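Researcher: Batch entry, complex prediction.
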Amino acid sequence: MPADTAFDRAVADSNTGGLVWPAEGWSRVPFELFTSPEIHEREDERLFRGPNWNYLGLEVEVPEPGDYTTCHVGATPVVLVRDEGGALRAFVNRCAHRGAEVVRRPRGNARGFTCIYHNWSYDRAGRVVGVPWEKGRGGAGGYDAAFDKAQHRMRPLRVASWAGVVFGTFSGEAPPLEDYLGPAICARLSAVFARPVTVTGYQRHTIRANWKLLYENSRDFYHAPQLHKFFGAFGIVQPDQAARAEMWHEGTHCLLTIYQNPGARKQRTKLEEPRVAAFRTALPENIAISIVGIFPNCLFTLIGSAFSIRQFRPKAPDRFEVVYTYFTYADDPDCLREHLFQNNQFGPAGYVAMEDAEVVEKLQARIALGGDKGAGLVAMDGTDTTPDRIDHMVSEANLRAMWKGYARFMDFAPPETGGSGAGGERSPQ
Amino acid sequence: MSSIGLDVDRDALFAIEQLNKAYARCLDDDRLEDWPDFFLEDGRYLIQSRENRDAGLYGYILYFENRAMMRDRVTSLRVANYYNLHTDRHLIANVDIVGVTDGVYDARANYAVIQTDAEGRSELFSAGEYVDRIVFVEGAPKFAERLVLLDTSNIVGLLAVPL
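Model: Structure tokens for the complex:
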């Protein structure tokens, strides 16, 4: 919004965290979104700690009472644990006494947890059950009578799961998980997880860029054949395919689906070892590829027999970690074998993935150069954001939809023109 | 068996040390096309984090079970993939034979790879261990398997060129 007076500017700043979206609308993505420490802080508060559900893990990772796994919700370290009664619990991994880390291993099984600093101990729900010298020692000191350890605990999250996928939220205002995910994503997760799955490993990946650049990249049809030359170089002929992207949750979730045409000709390739490419899909409903973006912190990549979930952990405006959880179907040994070959395509060393890390890191390095208030252009296939579904790959409408929803959840004022700007010349930079 | 003590197979240890030197030089000189020749035709090249290994999980970052897959990797890096412009410097130490069974030598070595970017900035990119199975073919040592066991399980940026 143009700010004509100091007063207008002050109002704009208080409403938007200082961000003024370009008047051209959602077809412009301000670079400031990827560099500003204030926006980074605001994302942690309004997105990750706000009324959204964040991916925590899979139920199969914590099958028995006491099984736990650690993760992050935005910047906050969280523990997911199964309690004595079989219920899933999650709490912030921060001692209620002084704030020290309590759970020190990435995953395991425990009767309870003890902070190493002053040995405060906790049950599996994160409630304080033991405080050394609580009543003093040798008649001296101790906490006074008003101290009630039952009033102290590691901060809990609400937990809910759908089809064995576990989410948590800090907010009492998050809608029921099923409503949050929406019917199409619920149906996709139910179909994919209708068979038992097994976790085959984890991978940690640090990328020196803003997290949103990679989150957005996963739904960017435009870049895929341009940046990732692996399929073209090896003549990997994809079966005739129909692609579809559906946007949910104000455009911030994206359900991307590429169907396999059963009548398509067989793939051929110049790969010496063709098993690296997926020839058979283990996915239901004749789906060849599905990428499910569940805002704000996770992406499912489901291709052939190689499945993964990427959990996003922002660390700074220009740095984030992705933690991959690899999994495949447990009831089919062929899936595991295929998975080992196909997984060479994905992850930080992957044939069709390494470029994404390279390009977002170099993009970040360019836009970080001092004082540039420029913006990126996402005007392929028009400038509007109205469709909640696109049925072809020659479009950036799903990116515009994401930015519109993102701005709404961040409480940024919308651009004044409502997005009439055409995809013409960029302003000089 | 270990190279400590008197029963050390000095000739085999020397040959394996030479193999590691040649392997490092090949990668550091960017002669990637020669890299598969360090392996048997059905040799395996695996990269796995210690975190996955200790948990009994696969979690391979790269899983190549024959030399054809290694040749595909090199072709892809040359003609298809975009990755960070850099040079590598492999430092390999503590090369040791830890056992031998039916002519297959179990060997281990520590490695560190320092990467230098296009503007001359150097950083430690990866540290870990080579866990090898080595056989001699006409007197020359070849990898039946090289497992790169990553201490640096958190990859910064991307991993394109073999470790």
